[in-house]
Amino acid sequence: MANIMIRKGDRGYVFYMPKRDIEDSIVAMEFDTPEKWGGEIRLGNGGIYYIEPQEAPTRLPYSVRAKRIDGVE
Amino acid sequence: MGLLNREEAEALIQEVLEVYPEKAKKDRAKHLMVNDKTLESAKKCITSNRKSVPGVMTQRGCAYAGAKGVVWGPFKDIIDISHGPIGCGQYSRGGRRNYYSGIAGVDSFCDMMFSSDFQEKDVVFGGDKKLAKLIDEVESLFPLSKALSVQSECPIGLIGDDIEAVSKKKAVEIGKTIVPVRCEGFRGVSQSLGHHISNDALRDWMLSNRDGKLEPGGPYDVAILGDYNIGGDAWASRILLEEMGLNVVAQWSGDGTVAEIENTPKVKLNLLHCYRSMNYIARHMEEKYGIPWLEYNFFGPTKIAESLREIASHFDDTIKEGAERVIAKYQPAMDAIIAKFKPRLQGKKVMLYVGGLRPRHTVGAYEDLGMEVVGAGYEFAHNDDYDRTIKEMKDATLIYDDATGYELEEFVRQIKPDLVGSGIKEKYAFHKMGVPFRQMHSWDYSGPYHGYDGFAVFARDMDMAVNNPCWTLFKAPWEKPAEATNEDTEALVA
Ligand code: SF4
To answer: Is-cis flag, bond preceding B21, omega within 30?
Structure first.
């Protein structure tokens, strides 16, 4: 589990992990509706992370805990 | 040698790697690449921000250097206490030339060094008492400081001193903010973690001091982040922003103050020059205060104009017109500089090896002068920096991460650039090899290089280095064939 920050870029969501300074685009997010948001997210570099599905944040950027499932660290 | 093509560049990397033992070779191979513009992400081709290989000469610094030297040092009214043995502070004092306006020792403390001068007994019995005493002493001698910071050197972390407790207690006593910074040199793999720790310390101990008490900001308030005013860089940038109608509330950290830090949360846009050392605080302010941030580049007229327009695009028409006005105003002067220096510099090849930003940021300025960057690398960049670099560089440019002394020398020997831009540690090695050199950390005691005014200085300095007649005098006269000597002397006189 690590803290990540999700912000809005020109082309969709951007993933950022302060601890490791990983910045990448989010190419797919499992749930992306106001009521249910998060789940499995896939990054441009092939990494896969998991955010506990929750209500969509009212404002971005938003810091949240995420779990690394697969891919380069 | 002319420009390398892809195969030649790859072959050069292989050749250089040949001398390493198997394990080091495998490791170093991951840090060297040949640029390929089609790549979306640098991740697969280059590894960065990893521990240096023991036994090779790395050019990196430590976390303390990144915190005290880079981020904290330039704030002029903060007294930074180098907490620990004397050497770390003394040898890092004043070399970076962060200019400030103020009176040293009265209200500004950038070029002074404060240290707790640890002795054996402090290591054995702990240094907290000494720190408390030191803070009292500093406060009575320099009452006009606005805040203090405690920059830990290695031993503090090793012996487990509680600098946070001392700082909190003393802050109440003297009525000033005291920020404990846990930037012991052994943390992380380079000075880069020191930047991050400093950003976090600023965030936790200072940035929010006036939350709820700040007057609402004006519509054109901006802050400059990540400009350390080396040789006056921030000033040369600031005047452009002000000329186009923006109101610069804060400079982080060159010539900056505590009041500026505390006022930053009211700005409308954060302008980020050095992405590597200050993106953390920009991201934090975006999340907490909803302030967007923007990376810009003030090296060379092309990039400046691009950046001014991009900055202006975040504001209304007055600012957009302002940007056009500024660009138009300086264009004739820039054209004159280019007309003067481009013929002397056209086609010259440059290799760069600097910290975490400049190898990609200065490319535009070199290209404005007709020069070409054939190799670039960073001491402590991270993956996101390389993502940004790939786009700036030409195809087949050599890219090296945390290069060793040997690699750099070998690359330069083979590529034979007309100019190398790097730091003081590299400077004399290359001078001895007969290669023109500029320090790109401290601008070789020159500057500013940012902004339009800076470009004038930059162009002159590059010309001075590349076309200096001394480079023709490397061979002793008696070692040259007679005709050549004549020719050379004529060239010199002409
Ligand atoms: S590594 Fe430690 S001892 Fe060395 S300069 Fe940095 S803080 Fe000082």
So the answer is: no
